[in-house]
Structure formats: structure tokens, C-alpha cells
């Protein structure tokens, strides 16, 4: 598939099943991520790969966060929260590790967002489905700590990766109303 066809046909996949990307494919997906534009060549990205039982680290952190925010959470609610990371066989936590200096932090975070997009396109090109997730867990210090990230890091994406269970609809992406030509 050529690059533009890949970009134009990529869609978020809410239903992912095993198998997730093979190790060599996952390495290629991450390698595509680090090709993102990076002002100052700071390499502000960090990746945490969760597969199999290691997804439970995120699952437990998410359930603990729910319990902290909602002390009356029922066992069913906690179980539902724990099951969220189990919706995909592989999750890559994509985080920004900003460096203080002349490059503004926002530019470093945007570079990491571009890395996440490159990774989704690479996954699509290799025949895998992906979904970019965040939610409250992505912004919570206890979740970052559970994943071994630094306090100053920012989780930009929880990339859910796997085999498409069913192809989602390709939603039109019109440019009408979002472009102004001068």
C-alpha cells in the first residue's frame, strides 16, 4: 500500500483481538514513531510496551484510580475498569519526556503526538488495527508511576494494537470548513 492510500484508509479500530504485533513488527512500529519530526533532536518520546499479563499493571492502576476518585465503586465497576486494557493484546504507552531548554515543551509534546500517529500508520501498513486512547488514567501521577514513567512525563497516547476483529467504518474526513486559502 502506498503512503497516501495508507493515510486515507486508516481508521480507529475499537474491536481488536490477538494476535498483537509480533516483536519484529512492534520494533518496526516503534522505529516509525521515532522518525517523527523533532525540533532540536531532543528525542522526547518514551515507550512502554504492555503485552499479555503486563497489561495488568495498567489495569490495576486504572482500577485503583477509579477507587480513589469514587470510593463507593462497586466490584463490577472496578472489574469493568480493569478490563479496559484487556481490549487489545498489545498496548504501547507513548509518553513525552520534555527537556527544559530552548525548545518549548508544547513542541516536544507535539513531536510525541506525531510519533504516535506514525506508529498507527505503521501498524496499519503492517496489517494491524489500532486505537488511540487516553482518558483520566493518562493524566494521573499514580498511573505514570505504576508504568515507570517520570513525574514530569506526559502520557500522550495509550495505543491499543492488535488484529482487527471487524473493520470499522471509514468515516469521511472532509476538508470543507477547516481550510482557508489566502
UniProtKB/TrEMBL annotation:
Primary enzyme class: oxidoreductase
A Pfam family per the record: Nitroreductase
UniProt binding sites for FMN: 10-12, 35, 39, 132-134
Coiled-coil annotated spans: none
Matches recorded under PANTHER family: NAD(P)H NITROREDUCTASE YDJA-RELATED (PTHR43821)
Keywords: Flavoprotein, FMN, NAD, NADP, Oxidoreductase
Nitroreductase domain residues: 7-162
Cofactor section: FMN
InterPro entries linked: NAD(P)H_nitroreductase, Nitroreductase, Nitroreductase-like, YdjA-like
Protein name, UniProt field: Putative NAD(P)H nitroreductase
Similarity-based family: Belongs to the nitroreductase family.
Species: Povalibacter uvarum
EC number: 1.-.-.-
Co-factor binding comment: Binds 1 FMN per subunit.
An MF annotation (GO) of this entry: oxidoreductase activity
Positions of the UniProt region annotated as Disordered: 1-21
Amino acid at each position: 500500500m502506498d503512503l497516501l492510500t495508507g493515510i486515507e484508509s486508516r481508521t480507529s479500530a475499537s474491536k481488536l483481538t490477538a494476535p498483537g504485533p509480533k516483536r519484529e513488527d512492534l520494533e518496526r512500529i516503534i522505529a516509525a514513531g521515532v522518525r517523527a519530526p523533532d525540533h532540536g533532536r531532543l528525542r522526547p518520546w518514551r515507550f512502554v510496551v504492555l503485552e499479555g499479563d503486563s497489561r495488568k499493571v495498567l489495569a490495576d492502576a486504572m482500577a485503583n484510580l477509579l477507587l480513589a476518585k469514587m470510593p463507593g465503586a462497586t466490584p463490577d465497576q472496578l472489574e469493568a475498569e480493569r478490563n479496559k486494557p484487556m481490549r487489545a493484546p498489545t498496548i504501547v504507552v507513548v509518553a513525552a519526556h520534555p527537556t527544559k531548554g530552548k525548545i518549548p515543551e508544547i513542541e516536544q509534546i507535539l513531536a510525541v503526538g506525531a510519533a504516535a500517529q506514525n506508529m498507527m500508520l505503521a501498524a496499519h501498513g503492517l496489517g494491524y488495527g489500532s486505537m488511540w486512547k487516553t482518558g483520566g488514567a493518562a493524566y494521573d501521577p499514580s498511573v505514570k508511576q505504576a508504568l515507570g514513567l517520570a513525574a514530569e512525563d506526559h502520557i500522550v497516547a495509550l495505543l491499543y494494537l492488535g488484529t482487527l476483529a471487524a473493520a470499522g467504518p471509514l468515516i469521511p474526513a472532509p476538508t470543507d470548513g477547516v481550510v482557508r486559502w489566502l
